[in-house]
Design goal:
DNAb Helicase, Chain A, 10-stranded mixed beta sheet
Amino acid sequence: MNKNFDYLGNTFQLQLLNQIIVDKEFSMTIMDVIESSYFDNKYFKIILQMVKEYYVKYQSTPNFDTLEQIVKSEISQELVAKIVLDTITQVKDAPFEGTQFVQEKALKFCKQQELQKAMDKAQKIITEGDFESYDKVEGLVREALQVGERETGLTDIFSNLDTVLDEDFRHPIPMGIPGIDKLLKGGLAKGEIGVILAPTGVGKTTILTKIANTAFNLGYNVIQIFFEDNPKIVQRKHFTLWTGIEPDNLVQNKEEVMGKITEIKETMKNELILKKLPSDSVTMNQIKNQLRKMIADGTKIDLVLLDYIDCVVPESSSKDEWKAEGSVMRGFEAMCHELNLVGWTATQGNRSSISSEVVTTDQMGGSIKKAQVGHVIISVAKTLQQKEMNLATIAITKSRLGKDGVVFENCKFNNELLEIDTESSVTFLGFEEQQEERKRDRVKELLEKRKLREQQQN
C-alpha cells in the first residue's frame, strides 16, 4: 500500500492543499486524519503543518493571506520563507478541474491509512493472545471505518433558543422591489435561493441586476455572474440605476455619470464584482471552487447572482436531460448553503410562456425539477402591448417564505431605466376573474358597436 501521495503526482498535491484551504467543509472532514508525512515535498509538509496548527487553535483553516502572514512571522530563514511563499502561490493557483476527484481520492487514502493503523494495533493484540480484548479490537476497526464521516444537518430541538426566537432571525437581503420584498418577509436570507422565470427577452437580466445593485447599495458584497452579456452592458445597467440616465444617453452625460460613480466608489467599502463565464462548459462545481478561492483570498461574498442557470452544464453527461438539469439547480442550492450565500438565478420559460399573460411554474423550460429546489420562484410575463407600454405581469408562483399565488398585473417594468413598480396585486383567482370580466366588457363593447352600425345602416 502507498505511504504517501507521491504516486498521484505534484499537481494532485497542490490541488489537495488548495482544497484544504478553500473548502472549509472538506477541511473539517479530512483535517484530523491527514498528516504531513503523506506529502513527498518538504515545503508541502511545512504548509500542511502550519494549516493543521492553525486549525487546532481556531477550528478553521486559514485563508491564503493569513497563511502568508504566518510564514513571514514564524520562518526566520529568509530563503526557506521565500520558497514556502512561492509554494503557497502555486497552491493558490492550482487548477480547479478535477477537484472532486482530488477530495474523494485523498479522503479514501487517509481512510486506508487509518484502517491500516487500526489493523496493525489489532494484530498486535491478537498476537499477544489477549483474547479478552475483543471489544477493544472491534472498537479500533469501527473507529477507523468512521474516519471522514461527519454528522451534518443535525440540530438539537433546544439549541440556540435566543437566536431562533429573534424577531429577524433570517437577516434577509431585499430585492429592491417593495411589493415583492414585503411578501418575501424582507427578501431572501443566506442559504436560500430564488429563481426568476421568464420567456426570452422579457427582462431576467434587468431583475437580477436590480437585485445586485440594491444589495450593494445596502452594504453587501455581491458577485454577479453572467454568460451571455458583455460586461460593459452590465456595467452600464448599474450606472443607469445609480444615475437614472438611460444606457444610450450615458455617453452624452459622461461628466455627470463619472461624478456619481466616483462618489459611490469612494463612499462604499463593500464590493460589487462582475464575472463573465463561457456558456457551454462551466459546471456548478467549478463555479463553487472559484467562489471558494475568492473567499480564501479574503473576498467576502453575501450574494451571488447567476444569469442564468440554463447556461451551467451538469457535472457528468446523462441520457436523462431533465435529471441533469435538476442536479445543476440542486448544486446551486448546495453551494449557497455551504458558502452561506443568498442565491438568485434565472431560467427560460418554455414556448407556451411567450404568449402567456401570466407565466406559471409548469411553463418552465426543461426539467420541472428546477422548480422543486427553489425557495422562491418569481415569473415575469409581457404581452406585445405591455412591452410597448413598459409594463409586465409579475407573479410569485412559489414561496416557502410566505404568501404565493400573488399576481402584480401591469406593473411598471422599464428595461432601459431598470424601473420595476409593483403597487397593485391580485391573486391568480382574482386575475382570472378580472380576465373574464375584461372579456365580457370586450364582447359587450363589440355588440354595442355592431348595434350602432346596424342603426346607422337603417
